[in-house]
Backbone:
């Protein structure tokens, strides 16, 4: 009965493809990627402040510890907050932290800001909103819950498309969790599966106040153009703000673009000034120390060996930084460089596919086998989505074979009994190197949705430190060790059978999942 619902997103207007401008990478060392700071702020940090996590349990336990020890701010952006016991425990941790802060100071110093997607967070009778309302009621001055609603879901489209299917039009997909000056970047949502048996990626940036300030401001900016959850479960916009689906769409998107770009550009300016100040002061310190003939303890802050670049993609607002940087990285990767690229949903944009097939680097692409796809076993039409991904995968594999690129471009399927796979990002190994010097980690899946429909954020981590490079290498190896190489025989297996109607519908709807 509901098969036709998959066609509903076709009512949404198409979005033109934009090609990234050409850009040459500097030739020297890992920091040949300095060109990225022409687009976004550059945060130089010490590699000892970066910790790569490997498991959902580790991620969940860290979230709880960080919430309980927060003294000033808790900022969490996610697609949604689940409604199970583990999620309730997170909410209880927030309540405990707010309560302690009130008791200690008389007025709470801790501020909690939560950004979720409106459609996903409102799904069902018990949902993200009902989970958070008690916090709003008890701590109205300290807690803010913002629900982003895409401006593309409006009018007849909003009226016709039912719950769950309306999420295909566009979402708030950013996942960032920060506590005081500690920041967790991930692709994981705040849901029990992501705390137990849904494999993702997670990186903790410790004692990084400038990075924490940036993401706080980014979440605030998106929150300002989002619906504000009220204590009675209603929502309203901030006073004077254009409504995302009732107001003028162009005006709304222009305001949103301005708010987000203000955050990016002001942080860029701050970091450039800080960099210049640090450079001059270090020169002066070095000069005075050489005159003294000895170094006073703690006189010089260690020079950074790792650089963080936040990459933002919000095509509905005309912001395409992540797309530009990703395309440039793929374009400029040299012969014999290796790129390990992973996505839980293999549905690359045509531009990314063309670059992978037409450039010189070696690619190892990790994707979900049908059994670990998040939609495996789903009811109704959604249950056919893993088959649609198999069909997309087979088409890409056939193109690789037609171009005789099987050695250079290799597909690998992640498989793990009782688990699902949601990891995304890439690791870049320069030619002749056994360790990666760059990784991308965050929310984008490299698909059409990530590029054109949703709000996305990830970071590029560039490092010259061997110990951190080893951490990133081990993370990559742990994921790829649970995979098998795709060959023609893979698609002859019974579980790879794709029904005719799925083959016919997939080209029409592939831009919506």
Residues:
């Amino acid at each position: 009965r509901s098969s036709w619902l998959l066609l509903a997103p076709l009512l949404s207007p198409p979005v033109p493809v934009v090609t990234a401008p050409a850009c040459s990478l500097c030739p020297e060392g890992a920091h040949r990627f300095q060109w990225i700071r022409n687009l976004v702020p550059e945060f130089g940090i010490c590699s000892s402040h970066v910790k790569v996590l490997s498991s959902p349990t580790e991620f969940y336990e860290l979230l709880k510890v960080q919430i309980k020890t927060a003294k000033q701010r808790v900022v969490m952006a996610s697609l949604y907050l689940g409604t199970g016991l583990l999620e309730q425990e997170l909410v209880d941790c927030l309540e405990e932290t707010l309560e302690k802060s009130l008791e200690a100071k008389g007025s709470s110093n801790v501020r909690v800001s939560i950004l979720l997607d409106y459609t996903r967070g409102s799904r069902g009778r018990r949902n993200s909103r009902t989970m958070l309302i008690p916090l709003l009621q008890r701590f109205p001055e300290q807690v803010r819950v913002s629900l982003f609603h895409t401006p593309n879901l409006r009018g007849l489209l909003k009226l016709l498309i039912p719950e769950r299917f309306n999420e295909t039009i566009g979402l708030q997909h950013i996942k960032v969790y920060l506590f005081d000056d500690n920041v967790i970047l991930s692709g994981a949502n705040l849901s029990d599966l992501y705390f137990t048996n849904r494999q993702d990626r997670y990186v903790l940036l410790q004692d990084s106040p400038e990075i924490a300030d940036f993401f706080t401001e980014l979440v605030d900016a998106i929150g300002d153009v989002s619906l504000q959850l009220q204590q009675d479960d209603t929502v309203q916009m901030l006073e004077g703000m254009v409504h995302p689906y009732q107001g003028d769409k162009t005006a709304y998107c222009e305001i949103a673009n301005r708010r987000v770009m203000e955050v990016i550009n002001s942080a860029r300016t701050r970091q450039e000034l800080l960099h210049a100040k640090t450079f001059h002061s270090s020169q002066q310190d070095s000069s005075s120390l050489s005159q003294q003939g000895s170094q006073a303890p703690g006189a010089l802050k260690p020079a950074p060996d790792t650089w963080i670049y936040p990459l933002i993609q919000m095509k509905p607002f005309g912001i395409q930084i992540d797309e530009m940087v990703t395309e440039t990285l793929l374009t400029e990767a040299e012969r014999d460089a290796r790129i390990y690229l992973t996505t839980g949903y293999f549905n690359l944009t045509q531009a990314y596919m063309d670059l992978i097939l037409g450039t010189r680097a070696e690619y190892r692409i990790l994707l979900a086998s049908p059994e670990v796809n998040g939609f495996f076993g789903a009811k109704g039409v959604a249950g056919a989505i893993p088959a649609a991904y198999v069909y997309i995968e087979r088409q890409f594999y056939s193109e690789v074979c037609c171009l005789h690129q099987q050695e250079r471009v290799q597909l690998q399927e992640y498989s793990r009994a009782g688990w699902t796979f949601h990891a995304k990002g890439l690791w870049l190994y320069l030619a002749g190197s056994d360790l990666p010097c760059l990784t991308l980690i965050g929310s984008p899946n490299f698909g059409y949705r990530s590029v054109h429909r949703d709000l996305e954020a990830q970071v590029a981590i560039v490092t010259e430190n061997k110990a951190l490079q080893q951490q990133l290498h081990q993370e990559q190896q742990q994921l790829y060790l649970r995979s098998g190489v795709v060959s023609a025989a893979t698609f002859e297996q019974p579980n790879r059978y794709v029904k005719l109607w799925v083959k016919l519908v997939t080209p029409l709807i592939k831009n919506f999942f």
